[in-house]
Amino acid sequence: MMREDLLRQLENEPVWDMIVIGGGATGLGTAVEAASRGYRTLLLEQSDFAKGTSSRSTKLIHGGVRYMQQGNLSLVLEALRERGLLIRNAPHLVHNLSFIVPIYDWWEGPFYGVGLKLYDILAGKLGLGPSRLLSLEETLRHIPTVEPNGLRGGVMYHDGQFDDARLAISLALTLEDLGGVALNYLQVTGIFQESGLVAGVEAIDSESGKKFRIKGKVVVNATGPFIDSVRRMIDPSARGLISPSQGVHLVLDSSFLPGDSGIMVPHTDDGRVLFAVPWHGRTIVGTTDTPIMAAPLEPRPLPAEIDFLLTHASRYLTRHPTATDVLSVFVGIRPLVRTDGVGDTASLSRDHTLLIDSSGLVTIAGGKWTTYRKMGEDTVTAAAQVGGLDDRPSVTASLHIHGWQEGVRTGDQWQVYGSDAPALELLLEENPLWREPLHPALPYCKGEVVWSVRHEWARTVDDVLARRTRALLLDARASITAASAVAELLACELGKDHIWQEQQAADFCELAKGYLLE
Q1: CA distance 177 to 173
Q2: What CATH code would you report for 415-515?
Q3: Bridge-partner residues for 353, per DSSP?
Q4: Alpha-carbon distance 54 to 35, whole Å?
Q5: Segment among 155-169, 363-377, 402-416 with least mean pLDDT
Q6: Exposed, middle or buried, 307 (CB in 10 Å: 0-12/13-18/19+)?
Q7: Quick one: pLDDT band at residue 416, thresholds 50, 70, 90?
Q8: Domain 3-53+166-241+347-398, CATH class in plain words
């Protein structure tokens, strides 16, 4: 997978069937959908795949219990179906996780118990297991660090958990398997038209500065929080579609939530659901819902959001976390579709919206990771009509994601690599030093850096430590310590000099400071 070879394809392909702008969940899902139907597909990402909110989710593939409270049963039904399909198609990245709603008031047991039984019914044959009421003793056995004062019991239900950035990389690899082309660090700078209709994009390679003019029969804008900026490349006066909101997550040591069950609090002070979930040997607590004016590529938490999460975590955990316990803090941006008259982003729907403007630009907005496949299906069906492409049926409901294999065991060392694990083992045999850990506090070895460059488009220290591995999220301080070793390995693989190497390490360390609390 040489970047130079991929760039040459941009010059050698006269006209692509479909050009997808955006390398997050929506763009990758759309590109895989298009390529799986046999359309010649190109995906362009301005930074790295899943650099934005698609690597900063709460790590859940779920129907959305909160959406039932809002009465949006159609969204819950669709999400539960997609949850079941994704667990079948990517078992190396998505697994069943039990959640417990702790019960402190007498009415909560029957109230939430009935609601979660409806959740089971909506899931149907794709359900992950029946919900049930738990006694006080059973609740404490599953979540021993839950606050016991006043606890009456709990309600257990099931949802999916995943590694978001790893799923994004696996989707990019799936696109490649299907004959499509994915390029990161290839920024779209303009959209050109012929006879008043979109005919392609102008882009620049962030590494070399080389410019490209790429023709496509149809162009899809799948840039999440940034869709309005792409729409305004054609119409500078276009009304904004997105009302962004940010969600903050705290990462704590696993001792705050030992075991293999998560906690779900159905109603917090701001009306959001609060989760505490085990993930990669850590505990994630989230999330907030704070309206913001603009969507930066590297969002930062507000002090009030940190206080909110620490306060709520202390209400439900026997160990009361403080700022010094936080290993990392990460922030995602929700690209919520604007609804006039609604000021509270927590009440906005996560439904997706398709827009086709008069120039033929296809924009897909809203949605969430769980429904990325369905969003891609709907988008490609519409885009194919706009581009005059042959009508072909969707096959992604049963399409195995790259790395799929039978008999996946949760917790295996190379689980996220799936069927690529044997090839990774072969690579590690090339150099015994590559089996050395990047850092004693991180579950990654040096050879994974080499693998990420050769097989997964990694170009920077940030790519490796934030998304190919999840080091930055698991322990920001440890990742800062590991940055120099990663930069050295990258420089060797990419043929870069010592100045580049030092600059990469310095840039990452500066970025990683934003994941630490003062």
Answers
A1: 6
A2: 1.10.8.870
A3: 365
A4: 21
A5: 402-416
A6: exposed
A7: very high
A8: alpha beta
Rounded CA-CA distance 309/275 in Å is 10
Residue 236 CB neighbours (<10 A)? 7
Domain boundaries, the chain: 3-53+166-241+347-398, 242-337, 415-515
pLDDT in tens, 248-295: 999 999 999 998 999 999 877 767 789 999 999 999 999 888 899 888
Domain at 242-337: CATH code: 3.30.9.10
The domains spanning 3-53+166-241+347-398 and 242-337 adopt the same CATH topology: no
Per the confidence metrics, is the pTM higher than 0.85?
A: yes
Q: Is residue 365 a contact partner of residue 353, using CB atoms and an 8 Å limit?
A: yes
Q: Is the pLDDT of residue 349 over 50?
A: no
Give 468's DSSP letter: I
β 352-356/328-337 pair status: unpaired
Q: In 265-294, which positions are buried (b, 16+ CB within 10 angstroms) versus exposed (e)?
A: bbebeeebbbbbbbbbebbbbbbbbbebee
Q: Which amino acid is at 433?
A: L
What per-residue confidence (pLDDT) applies to 346? 45
pLDDT confidence of residue 340: 61
* 263 membership: H or E segment, kind and range: strand 261-265
